[in-house]
Amino acid sequence: MKSRYASDKGLTARMTGTMFLLGLLYVVFIGVLIAIGLNAAFVLILAVGLLFAQWYFSDTIALHSMGAREVSPEQAPMLHGIIDRLCAMAEMPKPRVAISDVDMPNAFATGRSPNRAVVCVTTGLLRRLDEDELEGVLSHELSHVAHRDVLVMTIASVAGVAAGFLTRMALWGGLGNRRDQNTALVGLAVLVVSVLVYAVSFLLTRMLSRYRELSADRSGALLTGRPTALASALQKVTGDMAAIPTRDLRQAEAFNAFYFAPALAGGKVNLMGKSDQPHTFTYTADFGKALAIVGTHDEALGQAWHAPSAPPVTQAEFARAISEELGQPVKTQLGSPFIIRVMGLFDPTLREMNEMMYEFTKPFVLDSSKFERTFGMTATPFRQQLRDTLAWVKAHPEVLAEH
After folding, report:
1. H/E run at residue 298
2. Are 96 and 70 in contact (CB under 8 A)?
3. Is the pLDDT of residue 249 over 60?
4. Over the stretch 191-238, which tens digit does the pLDDT of each residue have?
5. What phi and psi values does residue 66 have, to the nearest 5 degrees?
């Protein structure tokens, strides 16, 4: 039965591709093991046995590894209540519910099908999150079940498990057909092949893993309609306070090196691409306010927004405006795209500008009227942006010193 979790064609395509490549890898792995001298019956029994065990006992293995126990609605009423509500919203079978007595905040879903799934949370997570945040996390986990990527990741790990198992056996010795026929060489070959298979399977699953997590974030937030709850939960769980900038973003702004700092230092203002093309410049302070607004309004989910920006101007007009604000002539020079591309190999700022070159070779105009109508925020006037930025750069001589 299809749930109401938002489908993701990108996830489906990646799961299909990953399963095909891992299946091919598994078959090749089996063939190579037989070819280098391992008993065919042993290899086939091991391959089929591991595949079946990983598929059938995946939930039991995962719960046992976490020391988790299944809990009833009487034992964990809030947890069951949230999952009941989410399953009703998603129109999907309710999974079993388990708790692991671990202080590390974590949650995961496992199981060979939506009807045999289990969702487990740690006591550390329950202690740290409020009910809305917990709902966001559980919606994320149920999305994994609904999209069946839990099953895919379970099956995908079989090649790595088999490779790891055989690596240990090779290290222990005794993998030859007959112990008197190059046993050491066979063991070494098995070891090398197993390590390679493990590495390739790890890379393939990691490629899928990152995307599936982002897909679950999206689907889970769309179901609950409260992306801010999930964002708040992730902030608590990761403790990622380091993600909050400690350096004023204006000081790190690449445009300082091209516009403001050279103008104040009496140098040449660097223009890029074509100086006569209109360009929408978004003020850093306005962009920060817009991010804060979007992050605290659940209705902003699932829509494209352009931060409020002043009317577009050409780079030539931008340079003239700086000259007028400073009350002195400002020299300009047009940077060669080729030179910027080459120098970008060695200079991070030029590399960043090279990646943005497309914005300056033809009109780059953004319409922020939708944001302004919805949230009532307007952009800081262009000239005020220039005055504020120039005043800030003047007050921070270390910025000028860098350029």
Report:
1. none
2. yes
3. no
4. 677 777 777 777 777 777 878 888 888 888 888 888 888 888 887 776
5. -95, 0
Tell me, yes or no, whether 198 lies in a domain: yes
Calpha distance 187→166 (Å, rounded): 9
**Domain of residue 341, residue span:** 249-402
Strands 96-100 and 107-110: unpaired
H helical segments located in 120-182: 123-128, 131-147, 149-156, 158-172
Domain assignment present for 3: no
List, for residues 100-146, the tens digit of each pLDDT value. Answer: 988 888 898 888 888 888 999 999 899 889 999 999 999 999 999 98
Q: Is residue 155 part of a domain?
A: yes
Q: Pick the last residue of a domain from 185, 214, 238.
A: 238
Q: Are residues 221 and 86 in the same domain?
A: yes
Q: Which two tokens stand for residue 16?
A: 């299909």
Beta bridge pairs of residue 98: 70, 120
CB atoms within 10 A of CB 340: 19
Distance between CA atoms of residues 136 and 219, nearest Å: 10
255 CB neighbour count, 10 Å cutoff: 17
Return the amino acid letter for 39.
N
The number of beta carbons lying within 10 Å of the beta carbon of residue 245 is 10
Same domain, 307 and 364: yes
Instruction: Examine the domain organization and report whether 132 and 255 are in the same domain.
Output: no
CATH code of the domain covering residue 316: 3.40.50.720
Question: Tens digits of per-residue pLDDT, 146-184?
Answer: 888 887 777 776 666 666 666 656 555 544 444 445 566
- What are the residue numbers of the active site? 141
- Domain boundary among the residues 238, 267, 301 is at 238
